[in-house]
Each structure stands twice: as structure tokens, then as C-alpha cells.
User: What shape does this take?
Amino acid sequence: MIKFIYALITFILLASCSSLLKYKKSDEFKNAEFEKKVVIVEEPLKEEAKDSVSGTGTVSGTTSSSVSGTTDVSGAASVSGTATVSGTTTIGPKPTTPFKAKLSKPKPPAKPKKAAAKTAAAPVSQGRQPDTEDSEGFNNQRRPPVDPFRVGESVTHDVKYLGATAGQMVLKVLPFAVVNGKKSYNFVIELKSTSFFSKVFAVDDKVQTYVDYDTLVPHVFKLDIRDSGQVKEAQAYYNAEALTADYWEHRYTEKHGHEEKKLSWSILPYSQNPFSAIFYMRVFKYVVGREYHISVADDEKNVVFKAKALERAKISTDAGTFPAVRLKAEIYSRGNLAKASDFYLWVSDDDRKYILRIEVKLPFGSIVSEATKIVEGKP
Assistant: This one.
């Protein structure tokens, strides 16, 4: 969410050439160090997702938007790295955990061992970790009782600025992957400018992030940016056991040519990356008046994403009419984002917590990203 909002603002401010920047050598970008650390096995989507649905249970596109909007933006991106393979082919050591396309049933709790002595103190429940996050409805577990994510899900947004549609954002849930032997969610965000807005600034970006199924912490994100100003490919590896993050970047601009960057830093326990946080905020059971904190590791920094649940209300979009929770979000220690005076999100008030609307108020107008189509995915 951090980089997405920053990209929205940057997208509106920039005026540049009218086509995507070309760089013939971009296919030669390699990252051997990343490939040594990460092994990813993906499974293809074998069945068509369900028809798109609205909040009233009808096919999307039948209800007109009741919210005045304004602009689109560009932003994230993803790149499939060379360590990622589809089907059953793998790179590197064979994963220790077999891939399972369906959600695995939770294992029954282990039988408690007999106390060594009658005087031994009973263990104290640690509760859901980290204790900086809200634990409402989690039953002291990392995972919520109802999984909000379904394979094949996609939520399409139009992004507008001053009444003009600047582009489209699509949030997707792809089939599960295995990352270093661990079953993982496979989330994708795509951003693309409209043909009209591309005359001002063209964008065709994608980001892919893999999140551990059991712990809900990210393993990897891969970024692929193609816009009027730059060509960039990046990979990041988040080691939740060692509490470290590594980031590798190849970037090309006409002004500076080909540049490379490597970052490594220590992260806080249970940190999200700036893209997994967009999906992770869907796991909470929002209570009006309560504030929710998420630790995010990004760009050698450990920042805090905060969201306060303001109210419950219905929201009408082109995807349908939904009961929703309106959140006001704040990002701490992120420099330029302080320019966004107000940052609001609407999520559906159900077990799915679809992101229905994002609104960023700026001194010179508002950026609005709103759902136009929702494909439910398979339970």
C-alpha cells in the first residue's frame, strides 16, 4: 500500500513522453544471488474462476457508481524471476513440502504432555503475535477463522483524477505456490494507464508477492516496471526466521543508463512488504473506533501502516452495492507521503474484505481508485 499510494501521486505529477520507455537489454537482467536464496514452484490456474459478482449477489457492472471520482495511477509491478517456474519444474533444491493446490485442513492440536510434577505452573498462552496487531476474531492464531482469499479472485479498479480515468488496477489471487518448500499465497497487482492518459505518462507495471500460508508473512516480491520514465526489475527476499530483508534492483533510464542497487537490512517480526500489506489488511475483523497497526519493511526502513475504522456504511460502485467499513489510514516515517492529507479506504464488511475504494486527498485534488468488477474465485 505504501508504494502503491506513492506511485499514484507520482503518476499524477509527472508529464513525460507518450510511450513506454524501451530498453533492449532488459531481458538480460539476471539475479544469481536471488536465485540461490529462493526456489519458487507455481501451479497454473486449471479452472475458470466464477463469474464476477456484486455485493448484492448479482453480476457486476449492473450498478452505477454513486461516488464522484477522479484519477488513475500507475504503480506497482511484478516480474517473474528466473527462479520461478510453472508446472512441476523446479530450480535449485527440491522443496521439502509437496505442493497442494487446495487449502489444507488445519492440523489438530497436539495432545498436551503430562505435567512433570503437580506443582508445575500451567503455561501461559502467548496470544496472537505480534501483540502490536489487533487479535479480534483470530482465536490466538495467525490465520483468521475464515480465509478471505480464493484462488482465481480478481478485483478490478478504475483509477481517476479530476474526473478523468487515468488507468486500471487489478488485484489478483493466483494458484498457490511453494516457496523454499512452504505453501504460499500468490498475489499479483497490475497497473496500466489508459490509452488517453498514456499520452501524458504511460504505465504498464506488475508486482507479484508470495505470502506464507500458515504465518501470513511474505517471502518474496518481484517487480516489473515499464513506463515512460524507466524500465525496472527488482526482487526482494524476506527471511522471517533471520529477520532480514534483501532487495536487488536493475533500473534503466535514458538519463542515467543502466543502474543496479542492492539493499540489506534487519526487519521487525511479522513484517509485511509494501505490496503484501495491501492483501494482509483484509484479514482483520474491523471494529468501529479501533486502530489497526501493520509493520512494513521497505527501502531499508521499518515503518508502521495505521488504519482506524471510522464507520460502517453501504457503498455503491460499478461492481455492485456493498456493506462496507470506511478506514482512515496513516503511514509513518515515509517522507513524501506526508503530502497526502487524507487517505481513506473502504473494505467490504464481510469475510472477504474486498478493497472497494481508495481515496487520497491532495492539495491539488483527489485520487480515487474504485472497484468496477469483482470475480469471486473458488472457495
Q: What stands out?
A: The two ends are 25 Å apart (CA to CA). The chain has one domain: 2-86+133-375.
